[in-house]
Structure formats: structure tokens, C-alpha cells
Amino acid sequence: MNSARPSIRAVCCLGAGYVGGPTMAVIADHCPEIQVTVVDLNAERIAAWNDPDLSRLPVYEPGLDAVVGRARGRNLHFTTEVDAAIAAADMVFLSVNTPTKTRGVGAGQASDLRWIEASARQVAAAAKGHTIVVEKSTLPVRTAEVVKAILAAAQGDAHGDKTFSVLSNPEFLAEGTAIADLEAPDRVLIGGEGDAAIEALVAIYSQWVPEGRILRTNLWSSELSKLTANAFLAQRISSINSIAALCEATGADVREVARAIGSDSRLGSRFLQAGPGFGGSCFQKDILNLVYLCRHYGLEAPADYWEQVVSLNSWQQHRIARKVVQSLFGTVTGKRLAVLGFAFKADTNDTRESPAIRICRDLIEEGAQLAIVDAKVEPAQIALDLEQPPLAALPGAAPGGEGGWLPAASALEAAYGADAVLILTEWSAYHQLDWAAIAAVMRRPAWLFDARAIADAAAARAAGLTVWRVGEG
Ligand code: NAD
Ligand code: UGA
Description:
Elements: E1 10-14, H1 20-30, E2 35-39, H2 43-49, H3 64-71, E3 76-79, H4 82-88, E4 91-94, H5 114-126, E5 130-135, H6 143-155, E6 163-168, H7 178-183, E7 188-192, H8 195-205, E8 214-217, H9 219-250, H10 254-262, H11 283-296, H12 300-327, E9 336-340, H13 355-365, E10 369-373, H14 379-386, E11 404-407, H15 411-415, E12 420-423, H16 435-441, E13 447-450, H17 457-462, E14 466-469
Parallel strand pairs: 1-2, 1-4, 2-3, 4-5, 5-6, 7-8, 9-10, 9-12, 10-11, 12-13, 13-14
Antiparallel strand pairs: 6-7
Helix pairs in contact: 1-3, 4-5, 5-6, 9-11, 9-12, 11-12, 12-13
Bound molecules: nicotinamide-adenine-dinucleotide and uridine-5'-diphosphate-glucuronic acid (UGA).
């Protein structure tokens, strides 16, 4: 580790979300001499970051409460006073949301850069002296050009004693393992022009990241590497899910295939877990952004290639809903189904683009009555995602009822009167369920659809359930 102290004294981060909050907490923890202020326009979110009860932070991440508990109030601050925090900072991270555009040019594919542009304008207006502006959000390649143009306009204005450098420093953390990923990253990527700014950021990371893991590139390589990393990771999931379907049709087992191919050191064993399709706020958005960029540069074949990764993912999600309907004698109308897991993966309360959303919507559309339980997702969030409030009570199991959903407090409660249990998120609690107790409260014949292949299938079969596991022929 580098013993040289960072020259930066005060850092500000715009955006107190899944990335801004944990990333800045870890920087503050490792660099006690730097004042780190995280700002957000969302006052409710900031209040939750300041909640004395650390179990109520707005982001659930294992280990985050301890890091925030150590640094908050010492050199880690959460506030809505955006301008003051920018003015005091030598370095400003932009960690705002960059979702897919929903209207206008590029709708459905291009990234919506309105929050990045607004935050760059805010930095341009409020900064004092020299400020290093760091793109932490995931951005289309060449966005730094836009950021620089906005900052340059302020640099030249009448009051102008301000100057700026722009760096790209994309974040590679995964939700659920954010703290471990930030503490021991595979690499830290810093793209930029001008050694001084790059080295100022290197000096921060090198307080805990070995020098050999800090990569320096030009701005455009850094921006594009982030999109490429997510595209390659998502591509592996679509690849294994396509093979899972073929396994089911042929009697092969996708876990055996994954082990066999993953033992090849050229392929590696990670990200070969078949499932209900990838979710999360970024894979789909970032691939669609890549597709849009390829088309923008006239590269139709690469655009079509990457688009298929997303199409296969949607197909997999619909396929699982169809599988349930077909297995339950072609209809789920009026039938109760227990859904275990709604978050897009275990160990997070995030439901953005969760496969559970599409699968549950398909089943509700078919008339099913879902009892949904999740370890961390609140019923209010499920209602938002499904775009409908919970039913007052699940009506009787007689066919003919409208589809709907209700929250359940436990897997056992969800299973009452249900024809099937669906596992959609791999929460550790669902690895060891009491299948005898669950089967006893279900209607017969009863099924287990394990879209994550984590349950004890032998125990479920022994309890009398018919078991379907993703990728098992
Ligand atoms: P998020 O929606 O959780 O948080 C973004 C926050 O920015 C919101 O709270 C919003 O209110 C705030 N904001 C917007 N405009 C602002 C402004 N002008 N000033 C202050 N605050 C403002 O998003 P996130 O999941 O943290 O993602 C942020 C970026 O990081 C995205 O580009 C995403 O692609 C990227 N990323 C996310 C992850 C992840 O795991 N979620 C991982 C790597 C990279
Ligand atoms: C992903 C990347 O892993 C991070 O490196 C990146 O920083 C982040 O996106 C981002 O840019 O937002 P995240 O989406 O939080 O992180 O979580 P992952 O562990 O990648 O899982 C994504 C989805 O793929 C989940 O729904 C997960 O269940 C699914 N998945 C993952 C599989 O179906 N199979 C696997 O083998 C791995």
C-alpha cells in the first residue's frame, strides 16, 4: 500500500444511491484525513443515511452498517446542501442515476443523461478554485466530452477563478457484495488526461488497494470498459440460460455442463449459474446503451449481436412463467402460488429489473393469486413494481378469480393452500426449507419450481412435491 498521503482534503459525491453511499463510506473509512460529503436531492434518502438506527440505512448491503457507523459524523457526512459541499471539495464524484431513456431520440436504448448534465452544471456553478470532477456513474463512451464542455463554459465566465480536470472512474461493485468488492477490488480503473488529477485519485485508492490493481487508461477506454464489462458478464448469463433450456430438453444437467466448461481456465467458473434471467439496474441498461452506441456509429452487426443478449434474457423470464402455467395443467387462474424471493439477487433490497417482476406479472395476467415473501423487499416496493396494490385477502382457490398478489411473512405462510412454490431469489433461507411442513399446507398435487436451483430437491420430492429445477433435464 502507498504510504503517501492523498493531497485531496475534501471530497463531495453527488448521488447517495447504491453506488455513491457505499463507495464514499469505504473511502471515508480508509482515508480519515479526507472529509467526504455525500449529497442528494432526495431529502428522504439523506435522512435515511443519517438515521441513528444503522439497520435503517436506505441501502441494504452486508457490512455497510459497520463502515458507516465508524465514519459517519467523523469524516463522512450526508446532506442535501449540494452547493456548499461542492464549493468545499477538491474532488467531486458524479454518482447519479443514468437510466435508459423512455422518450425522444434513442428511447428504450440510449442512456438518459439529464441527471449527469444537471450535476455537471451544478458543479460548474458552485465549484471554487481547482476541482477534479470524477465520473463514477456508468456512461456512454465520450460523455466526458459533454461534462468538459459544461465545465469549460464556467471556467471562462466573468467570475472565473475556477478550473477543472475530468476523470472517468467507473464502479464495478456488485450489489450484495458491495463492501467486499470495494475493500478488495479486482481492479480500480481511472481514465483521464493529465497526470496530476489521475495521481490525486490514485493516492486515495492506494490507501487500501495494491498499486498493481490500479489501472490508468485514457478517458474513452475507461468509459467503454465499464459498458463492456457488464455486457460480457450478462452475455455469460444469457449463454448459460440458453444451454439450460437445451439441457431440460435433452436430459443434460446445466450444473454439470457449467462445471465441465468452467474448469477450462480460459472460460473460468464464475457467472455460469443458470437462473430466471439477469436482473438489476445495470446489465440491461448498459447493453442497450452499447447497442445504441454501435448503431450510432453505423455498426449494425455488433448492435444486433449484443441486442440478442437482452432478448434471450426476456425470453428466459417469460419461459419460466410459461413453464409454471403448462405444468399446472395449462391454467393458473384462481390458483394460489407461493413466490419466494422478489429482489433481483440475494443480499440486496433492490428490485430494479428483477426477473421476479416479469414472472409475477405474467402469472397474475394468467389469473394466479400470488403470495410473495422476500427477506428484505418491502410490500410497498412490490406493489410499485407490480403496478397494483395487494389484495385484501387471497380469495378462495376456486377458478375464475382475478389475478393478484398478497405479501406473506414466511415461506410457510406463503405456501398455505398453494398449488406450487416458486423460488425466484437465492436467499440463503431458501436453501434449507422444511419441505415436509411446507408440503403439508399445500393443495395436492403440489409443485416446486426452483428457478435458482438452490432448494433441497430430494427433501421436496420426499415430501411429495413434483420438482422442476432450471436446467435439469
Ligand atoms: P441510484 O438511483 O441508487 O442513486 C442515484 C442518486 O442520485 C439518487 O438518489 C438521485 O436522487 C441522485 N441524484 C440525481 N441527480 C442528482 C443531482 N443533480 N444532485 C444530487 N443527487 C442527484 O443509482 P445507483 O444504483 O447508485 O447508480 C448510480 C450510477 O452508478 C449509475 O450510472 C449506475 O449505472 C452506476 N452503477 C451502479 C451499480 C449498482 O450496483 N447499482 C454498480 C456500478 C455502477
Ligand atoms: C453487476 C456487475 O456484476 C458489477 O460488476 C457491476 O458493477 C454492476 O452490475 C453494475 O454496473 O451495476 P449486480 O447487477 O449488482 O452487478 O449483480 P450481479 O451479481 O452481477 O448479478 C446480476 C444479475 O445476474 C442478478 O439477477 C443475478 O442473479 C444474475 N446472475 C448472476 C445469474 O443469473 N447467474 C450468474 O451466474 C450470476
